[in-house]
Sequence to fold (191 residues):
Amino acid sequence: MKLVLASTSPFRRQLLDRLQMAYETDSPDVDETPLPGENVDQMVTRLAIAKARAVASRHPDALIIGSDQSAELDGEKLSKPGGYDNAFRQLRRASGKRIVFHTGLCLLNSVTGHTQTTCVPYTVVFRRLNDAQIDAYLKREQPWNCAGSFRSEALGIALFERFEGDDPSTLIGLPLIKLVTMLENAGMPVL
Fold:
């Protein structure tokens, strides 16, 4: 069987490259609008499954990886900022607080239809940031397409006091530790 990543995210590709396995990518083109009454865990898990299923018909002999991530601050979902002003507001609000990232992961066997799913939390604790620090970070990094307005794998590391979680790859968008277990369960061991 082949391995397919149902994503065009360069961040997820970089993470999956760490496993040194051959894989293909395919764009899932899924509507990511939250459903009424859906909490963040439910939403990211649903979307991870939807992304894997969206490409399954094009890959009838594959293990397909779907993943989705959202961040939550004080019970409110954070989106990708899209630009400087929204990113500034998000980082000012996050200063001195915790943001929980929820990453939904699905491994779909397109031959059998069997899915393995999980939602993995990962918490970042922000340093207290002043406006000048936030401005300097945003002008240098420009994380407009990143939930929470930062990239922890780059300069964004300077924003944090600490990380809390089992798998740091979860924060970037693909929980590799859980994925390795899922791949083993599906008969495709990494090692």
Summary: Residues 2-185 form a domain with the Maf protein fold (CATH 3.90.950.10). The chain has six helices and seven strands. The first strand starts at residue 2 and ends at 5. The chain has one domain: 2-185.
